[in-house]
Write a structure and sequence with these properties.
Low-confidence stretches: none
Radius of gyration: 18 Å
Distance between the termini: 37 Å
Mean pLDDT: 89
Order of helices and strands: HEHHHHHHEHH
Number of strands: 2
Number of helices: 9
Length: about 220
């Protein structure tokens, strides 16, 4: 228990340090007119959730678990987890195609879930067929670093919805903290396991959610 608490505190403070440094950089660049100003945005659906328990379960629990499996699942070297990651990708692609919130229950939810299940079944059969080749590829350190880099880039882009910016340059700067956060989660996954990155991600998301519940979004 003490080891887990120490782990969470150590990495949470490190993530806060990253965010503070990036925030200072953003302030300097904004003052120098290098980038424009950004307005912090939250999904309208998330803002409309009046049930605090539901809000916490979605943003602080469900989202971190699904995002870790999606973005860090490819680093686990597990055929099953890799297939789950691919299945979640199938689910999200349907939600994106339908232009709907990722976690909202609506008429297309069953379609997205079905797509995810089908992709998972197809993926695990393919991955099992090429199991040896996949593990041989994962044995290369450069390949794992490349996966971590690509994963972190996509993870950063995943959070573009959080900002309303005047141009692409400004958006890129605002996504830098998310990129480094993604790298931290990749490091944790590679060195301790994806269950630890999920735990850290849940803790990381819980803090602002709890603060938001105490002080509702304006």
């Amino acid at each position: 228990m003490k080891a887990t608490l120490f782990f969470l505190l150590k990495w949470i403070f490190f993530l806060i340090f990253i965010k503070v440094i990036c925030s200072l950089l953003i302030v300097k660049l904004t003052q120098a007119n290098v980038i424009g100003e950004s307005k912090y945005m939250m999904s309208e659906w998330v803002q409309s959730i009046n049930d605090h328990t539901k809000h916490f379960l979605i943003v602080a629990i469900l989202a971190p678990i699904m995002e870790e499996l999606l973005f860090r699942g490819v680093l686990t070297k597990s055929i099953t987890v890799l297939a789950v990651s691919t299945g979640i990708l199938g689910y999200f692609l349907v939600r994106i195609y339908c232009q709907e919130s990722y976690y909202e229950i609506d008429k297309n939810t069953s379609l997205a879930v079905l797509a995810g299940i089908i992709v998972f079944i197809l993926s695990i059969s393919i991955f099992q067929k090429y199991n040896v080749a996949i593990h041989n590829l994962y044995a290369y350190r450069w390949f794992m670093y490349l996966l971590a880099l690509i994963s972190s880039l996509f993870f950063a882009d995943w959070h573009r919805y959080m900002y309303s910016v005047p141009d692409t340059k400004t958006l890129i700067v605002y996504l830098i903290p998310h990129f480094f956060t993604g790298l931290v989660f990749c490091y944790i996954t590679l060195n301790k396991g994806i269950e630890w990155s999920i735990l850290l991600h849940i803790t990381n998301n819980s803090l602002p959610v709890i603060m938001g519940i105490m002080k509702p979004y304006e």
